[in-house]
Amino acid sequence: MTELAIGTKDLTKTYDTIRAVSGIDLNVPKGGIYGFLGRNGAGKTTTIKMLLGLARPTAGSIQVLGMDASSDLLGILQRTAFVSEKKTLYPSLTPSDLVRFSRGFYPTWSGSAVEKYARLFEIPMKQRFEKLSNGNQTKVWLLLALCQGADLLVLDEPTSALDPVSLDQLMRVLAEDTLDRGCTIFFSSHQLEEVERIAEYVGVIDGGNLLIEARLDDIKSEFRLIIAAGNSLPAETSAQVLSVDVQDGFYRYVVTKDADGFAAGLSRSGATVTSIAPLSLREIFLHLVRKEQPCTSGNAGATRVLSSSLS
Amino acid sequence: MYIWKCWRDTRSFFIAFLVVAAGAMPFIGLTSRGSNMVRDVGMTAVSGTFGLITMIVALGLGAIGATHEFAEQATHFLFTQPRSRQYFVWAGWSVGGIELAIIAAVGLLASWATLAVYGIRPFSAPLLGSIQERNIVAMFLYSFFVYALTYSLTAVLRSGLKGLGASLGTLTALSAFAVLMRVRWNMRLPTPVEKIGGLPLAASYVVWMSIALLFVYGAQVAMERAEI
Q: Is residue A137 part of a domain?
């Protein structure tokens, strides 16, 4: 069994009548990069807040690095670095001041990493935080996180406001530097191409429900777009068929597993299967979270829960 | 390092009022020297100035200190550092409390030193008389009480202005209520930091200071329960 950096069981968070997170079971393996995806308001940030003690779960349990979040939060925080979705910090402090402030909390703090990443990200270390551009403010958060020598990086939208060059640098740092020393990275992002580039595992949350959680390679090898032409072909979704569109007599099926078997079934029904194509993470994500009916309360009920076991 | 940051947040205010206390109190003392008003009136000019300065400092430090920590939207960062929220609340409060005590002490010492040099009878200078009459002690404890209240309310309300307003409102309401009780029902309610019933004055001070610490404890509990 894979050792987990983060494990949640039936994790739930409700705010009054709104169910922000609905009984999710996260399984984030140690030593890998896990991309946590979802639309705005899907429950990503709420989940992350619960992992780090910024919000209390309504129900369920959380284990981080083998420690229970309800009883050993400080132990978790000692070994976990965090980049918040809100990139605000003390406005009057400079990045140098913030480094001075942070380093005392972490015995594993690396001064050489500060120099390295400050140079790499071109952070003006003597300028007050409030005077920095949004991109540079994000970089300061990343600098503080990367220098802690943490075993787990929890990054909530770490790429927001970064220019393409900085984004590329960050992806390299995450994929090379941090993984080399056995660090686990759990990050949420809307940059699906970047997630696809570096993530080993992916979880998709929508309406507080974890729709899918698996190795990215497995997802990409299983999900297929099948285009077929024929009469009276099935137009219903199922556990295997994520979505069906009919355009100009062509049926476009997105299937989650056994695409060849499904295509063979269509052929047996008299259909002409014109193509079986792999999907990008972006396309898979869009099909997963696409709404089939108007929402009346948050996102709840608009998506289906698929199997969510890590292979 | 956290203590350093708390100091950094409040140092401008602290230094400004340190200078004011070290300058204004001796000046007031000197200008009042020789006028019988100083000794005859219970609250001397020096101790009056002392009360005013420490009160302003208490309100200012209470609001500024807690604002920087809990109202600048940096709580995501602060509360994911590996220290308890209890530590952050009490450490921040302690820094401001020490600064308040230093300003009070420096103001008093500067006044005493100035009057000792320039006064005709240095050791019976008005300032010493004030201390003996316990005005200074009571005023310092009152400012300490106000500081704890303002800090706690600012932390809980996560806003310097709201905390300051709520603190002033609470103090005003307490005094108004005590006056109302006395005038309307002839009941004497103690206001901070007055003598409480039959308790000795020192014991009353202990009770009032315990209440002040309870405010901070309340802020701690609120912070520990807060979802960010």
A: no
Is the CB of A74 less than 8 angstroms away from the CB of B76?
A: no
- The residues of A whose Cβ lies within 8 A of any Cβ of B are 49, 52-56, 74, 77-78, 80, 82, 84, 86, 88-93, 97, 100-106, 141
Supply the range of the domain harboring residue B182.
2-225
B186 in contact with A at a CB cutoff of 8 Å? no
B159 CA to chain A: closest CA distance, Å? 15
Confidence band of B180 (pLDDT split at 50, 70, 90): very high
B 79-108 near A (Cβ less than 8 A)? 79-84
Instruction: Check which CATH number belongs to the domain holding A42 and give it.
Output: 3.40.50.300
Residues of B in contact with A78 (CB under 8 A): 82
Q: Which member of B5, B76, B84 has the closest CB to residue A86? A: B76
Q: State the total domains in chain A.
A: 2
Same domain, A201 and A238: no
The CA-atom distances, in angstroms, between A270 and each of A231, A245, A275 are 8, 18, 15
Its domain, for residue A252, covers: 224-278
Residues A160 and A198 in one domain: yes
Cβ of B81 and A77 within 8 Å? yes
User: Strand A67-68 relative to strand A241-247: parallel, antiparallel, unpaired?
Assistant: unpaired
A70 and A159 co-located in one domain: yes
Contact A74 B82 (CB under 8 A): yes
Nearest residue in chain A measured CA to CA from B9: A92
Helices B201-225 & B85-118, crossing angle to 10 degrees? 140
**Residue A213 and residue A236 share a domain:** no
Same-domain check for residues A76 and A180: yes
**Sheet with strand A152-156: strands edge to edge:** A80-83, A152-156, A184-188, A33-38, A201-206, A209-215
ipTM: 0.84
Q: Does B183 touch chain A (CB under 8 A)?
A: no
Task: Burial-class residue A47 by CB neighbours within 10 Å (0-12, 13-18, 19+).
Answer: buried
Q: Tens of pLDDT along A22-66?
A: 999 999 999 999 999 999 999 999 999 999 999 999 999 999 999
* B1–A82 CB contact, under 8 Å: no
Model confidence, pTM: 0.85
pLDDT at A188: 94
**Phi, psi at A229, each rounded to 5°:** -120, 145
Cβ atoms of B59 and B146 within 8 Å: the answer is: yes
